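hi! just following up on the protien thing from before. the input was this:
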Amino acid sequence: MAKDAEKSAKLKEDGNHHYQAGDFPGAEALYSKAIIADETNPSLYTNRAMARVQLGCYDSAISDCNDCLKLSKGENLKAHFILSKCQLAIKDCEAALESALQAHRLCVKTNDKSLGPVTDQVLRCKKDRWDEMEKKRIREGQELEEEMIALMERERDDMVNSCTNDFDRVQVGEEWHHKMAMLRDTFDRSRPASDQKREVPDWAIDEISFAIMVDPVMTKTGKSYDRSSIMEHLRRHPIDPLTREPLHPSELRPNIQLREACQDFLEKNGWAADW
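and the predicted 3d structure came back as:
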């Protein structure tokens, strides 16, 4: 079918009206017709993806975002951003984080005004991924306990069955019962500390690299970043990441109090290095 850009643009405009009115099925249908009229327009796929997100059709929205990225050679901020939200919705946290980081890269590259929402999305992905890692850690600890108890029970049964009289069987059974009770008690005593919800505080996170700050410095507005990440940012773009005003390295000031707080947190929470 020949491309009809004018017809496609009209259908897209109508789709936008339906979307703004909250008629997401109608918007999705009109965007689909617009794509049929002109399948080479990347923005049509992200518009339809947004409508599909509202309808909870995440797999279809992901497909639209990927089609958009193919047409735009991977350089479409909106597609990466929507893709990240869809991947997070289906609990694919690793992919969601990668997509959010791609959106952030393009935000910084193009000095786009949506840096704030994109930064929030990156942090949300990191937090959701961390929560999934924590659930896995707790589950593996519980599985380890169950496996060790099962091994002890099998060994106990073998030893009891090898006994030649009832007195020995009772004695062996009691010994193994005591050993298993001690093992369960050991797990129980370690659980309150290891199973508590572990979180990285927002104040410790650098909003450029999204890592825990090691050497925080302040800009003129009082906002803190890790020295390495803000210096790299200023090397490429000599502007404040937040205000977009001119900013020079000589204007940065060490945030000693925050540095000490970050160091204290890491000393007491070595697990946070995985963040």
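The longest helix spans residues 115-162.
The CA atoms of residues 68 and 137 lie 37 Å apart.
cheers
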